[in-house]
Amino acid sequence: MSAAGEWRPRRGLFFFRSRPTSGDYIVATLMLVVAVASAFPLVWMVLSSLKTPAETMQVPPAWLPESPSLEAFGKVSGVINVGRSMLNSAVIAAITTAGIIVTSLMAGYAFAKHRFHGRNALFALLIATMFLPPIVTLIPLYRMIGTIGLDGSLAGVVLPNLANAFGIFLMRQFIAGVPDDLIDAARMDGASEMRILFVIVAPLVTPAVAALALFAFVYHWNSYLWPLTVLQGNADQYPIVISLSRLLSYNRGAMNTNLVMAGATLAVLPPLVLFVFLQRFFVDSIVSSGVKG
Questions:
Q1: Window from 52-56, 108-112, 241-245, 271-275 with minimum mean pLDDT
Q2: What's the confidence (pLDDT) of residue 288?
Q3: What's the CATH code, domain 75-292?
Q4: SS (H, E, C) the chain
Q5: Is it the case that residue 221 has pLDDT exceeding 50?
Q6: Residue limits of the ABC transmembrane type-1 domain (predicted)?
Q7: What is the pLDDT of residues 152-161, one digit of tens each?
Q8: SS3 for 191-215, per residue?
Q9: Which listed site, 7, 137, 146, 228, has its alpha carbon 20 to 30 Å from 276?
């Protein structure tokens, strides 16, 4: 407050600014440019799915469809089995995500709150596996799946991905911030380790769990190479991402680009809907990690 009694806001990182600075305008402009550049492919995909084949081949390109039509979406089901492919993708992504959350919570809790011989060395080895390109483990994993007779099935696609090094690392970092006194009090009350983990610890790291669920679901929904390798041409088990490749072959001569865009639009809807529901937790996880740092 000034000498005259007029209140003036303090300036600083955590205080209200009376007026934006030139730096604020620059940052806002850069954020807007990045947002537009990121959203443009998605918007173009949706608009192209509503165009006629002639409009998709027009030069210069027509930005907006003259008469928007959903005809391409109806034709997609005539080329691929959209319902079955979406179901296969949902099964793969949902089961894998659930497995990753459970195993990451359990392993992250053990690394964060339990003391055992070789803990740090084992955690360092786990982190090192994050730097291995997926192509390196493709053939060994495929041979293992073939040995136990799961090749050509959705179970073979899901099983090797039920645990994830990044998920364990993420959960370990967040669970480490849970007060030890809270866990010790629960143990004194006779709570088991599993009860402590899923009833006490897990709700406290909900933003991290939601962020991990979003990452895992989107990654495995969009997975292409591993399902293609395991399923071995079993088209009935193909997820939607692999089924979309048939639309590309159907689009020879670029005469059915709207059909390809319609299929791609259908494929991105489930991850997009999931993000809308989990975005609040996702942002909270970023804020929490920043505050802890």
A1: 52-56
A2: 55
A3: 1.10.3720.10
A4: CCCCCCCCCCCCCCCCCCCCCHHHHHHHHHHHHHHHHHHHHHHHHHHHHCCCHHHHCCCCCCCCCCCCCCHHHHHHHHHCCHHHHHHHHHHHHHHHHHHHHHHHHHHHHHHHHCCCCCHHHHHHHHHHHCCCCHHHHHHHHHHHHHHCCCCCCHHHHHHHHCCCHHHHHHHHHHHCCCCHHHHHHHHHCCCCHHHHHHHHHHHHCHHHHHHHHHHHHHHHHCCCHHHHHHHCCCHHHCCHHHHHHHHHHHCHHHCCHHHHHHHHHHHHHHHHHHHHHHHHHHHHHHHHHHHHC
A5: yes
A6: 86-278
A7: 899 999 999 9
A8: CCHHHHHHHHHHHHCHHHHHHHHHH
A9: 228
Report the amino acid identity of residue 54.
Answer: A
Count the neighbouring beta carbons within 10 Å of the beta carbon of residue 132. Answer: 10
Q: Tell me which residue of 238, 271, 247 sits closest to 73, measured CA to CA.
A: 247
With both helix axes pointing from N to C terminus, report the angle between 206-221 and 82-113 in degrees, rounded to the nearest 10. Answer: 140
Own/partner pairs, 280-284, CB within 8 angstroms, 24+ separation:
281/206, 281/207, 281/209, 281/210, 281/211, 282/207, 282/210, 282/211, 282/214, 284/207, 284/210
63-101 pLDDT tens trace? 888 888 888 888 888 888 888 999 999 999 999 999 999
The residue type found at 67 is S
Q: Per the structure block, which two tokens stand in for 98?
A: 């659930």
